[in-house]
Amino acid sequence: MKLRDKKPALLLIDIQKGFLDENYWGGNRNNKEAEKLSGKILEKWRNLNLPVFHIRHSSTNLTSKLHESDPGFGFNDHVLPLNDECVITKNVNSAFIGTDLKEKLDLQKTDTVVILGLTTNHCVSTTARMAGNFGYETYVISDATAAFDRVGIHGEKYEAELVHFMALANLSEEFATILTTEELVRKL
User: Fold this and answer.
1) pLDDT tens across 15-71, in order?
2) Is the domain covering 3-187 a CATH 3.40.50.850 domain?
3) Exposed, middle or buried by CB within 10 Å (0-12, 13-18, 19+), for 128?
């Protein structure tokens, strides 16, 4: 059975212009093509007439690049929603908390979700964990997600690539199946 036969929903998490300011988020972002690959996946999804959910983060911090008053709040040009596509706004890490995402998925009898977006170790991970806990067959697309450098609890620096792959490793097999864009397209 092809993945498309399960009518999977595509969850585009926080693919917003604010994440283009690498220094604001910690610098040294990995997967600099993540938005472009997300756009290619979105195009494929649209061609297959599968459900799409654009999730955006609305920070309550007035100085955040993701606050609704900042131009960074806008969706990245590679994944602009069409008028008939669902847009959900959240202000915590999970796309399920404080939104009607689960109700919308359940209304469509969706049991499979494909997640991509920013950042791997924050909103992508939190949403994937909850999707897995809710019982959805969950896929995370490794090259259509990205992370930034992080500072550890003792002041040590962790490179974005390590942060990214550790977040994926923590999701793999317990909460989600990890695929590349190419692997996803083959499964569709």
Assistant:
1) 999 999 999 998 899 999 999 999 999 999 999 999 999 999 999 999 999 999 999
2) yes
3) buried
